[in-house]
Amino acid sequence: MEEEEEEDEIHEHATRSPPSTGLDAGGGETSIDITALDGIVNVNAILTLAIFVGLAWNPSSSGAGDEGLSPPICVAGAQVEKDLVSFHVFAFASFLFSSLVALCLKQAVHLAGPHGRSARVNRALLRAGIVASAVGSVFGCGFLMLALVNVVQIKLGTLGCSGPALGAVVPLVTLIPAAMLIYSAIVFYAFTR
Q1: What is the C-alpha separation between 139 and 144, in angstroms, rounded?
Q2: pLDDT at residue 125, rounded to an integer
Q3: Could you give the CA distance from residue 177 to residue 144 in angstroms, rounded to a whole number?
Q4: pLDDT at 140
Q5: Does the keyword Membrane apply (predicted)?
Q6: 144 lies in which domain range?
Q7: Does 65 map to a domain?
Q8: Residues in the chain with pLDDT < 70?
């Protein structure tokens, strides 16, 4: 009789669901959140590498192949070079913010998972963090696009006077904002469902 009670108690303990963390209401939602955060961190890492490559390039030093790319009247001034560095730094700060928020959220989700001790994650706070991380990525992309516009002006001439510079910038300023708009719309759609 005592053994039956002990077996029932063991069976009840084994089949009891783990304590609720306040996070995983839908079962698969946490894995989707982790996947989204991983995607944000991976994209930010690639774009941050592009920023470092851009910062390593000295716009003032002309290589042998750079001479004659733009007419002397179209040469970009020192302000364009300063803006180039500023936009790279702003983009780096935005991507770093986005990545740090995403990594903190991932850590919080892992702590609140089935093996977590006592951590609890608020669903609304998690969503707000993902949106903040996405906004940081969008701002980083915007600043990186502006830095690339300045690279084009340094290499091909200012936008107002050089046809090749304008031809290079038009696809840049149409495709990147379009992609950012699509990304923002999908993030907004995901969080309203």
Answers
A1: 9
A2: 84
A3: 11
A4: 93
A5: yes
A6: 27-55+72-192
A7: no
A8: 1-30, 58-70, 113-121, 162, 191
Looking at residue 27, its pLDDT comes to 46
How far apart, in whole angstroms, are the C-alpha atoms of residue 171 and residue 175?
Answer: 6
Which one-letter amino acid corresponds to residue 53?
Answer: V
> pLDDT tens digits for 124-140?
888 888 889 989 999 99
CA distance 84 to 176: 17
Query: Per residue in 97-136, is it b (16+ CB within 10 Å) or e — as a string?
Result: bbbebbbebbebbebbbeebeeeebebeebeebbbebbbb
* Single-letter code of the amino acid located at 44: N
Helix (H, G, I), strand (E, B) or coil at 61: coil
pTM reported for the whole predicted model: 0.72
Q: 40 lies in a domain?
A: yes
Provide long-range contacts, Cβ within 8 A and 24+ apart, for 11-17.
none
Q: How far is CA 133 from CA 1, 12, 90, 154, 182, in A?
A: 58, 42, 15, 32, 16
Distance CA 126, CA 37 (A): 11
In a domain, residue 22? The reply is no
Domain membership flag for residue 1: no
